[in-house]
Task: inverse folding
């Protein structure tokens, strides 16, 4: 059961971007359940799409997964940080 609260900001053919709402567990601390929930929320699962998230400190990282199972957290490069920041609505 996923205890992290998050909002999906972007969901396209190549990646999913979510934002941690800082309620309950963080995405970082509930990564396994977050990947499982995202996989079940989409019609055909996550497939090969990357999953990026903004943590409670405002930093973007990737939740790496394989067959919709969380494997590890990867830090995003500065260019990715800027790109993902631009996709995130100001109210989040």
Result:
């Amino acid at each position: 059961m996923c205890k992290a609260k998050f909002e999906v900001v972007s969901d396209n053919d190549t990646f999913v971007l979510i934002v941690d709402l800082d309620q309950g567990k963080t995405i970082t601390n509930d990564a396994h359940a977050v990947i499982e929930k995202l996989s079940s929320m989409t019609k055909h699962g996550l497939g090969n799409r990357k999953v990026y998230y903004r943590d409670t400190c405002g930093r973007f990282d990737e939740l790496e997964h394989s067959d919709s199972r969380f494997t590890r957290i990867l830090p995003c490069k500065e260019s990715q940080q800027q790109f993902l920041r631009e996709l995130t609505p100001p109210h989040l």
Notes: The helical segments are 31-41, 78-87. Residues 4-87 form one domain. The chain has a mean pLDDT of 94. The first strand starts at residue 4 and ends at 11.
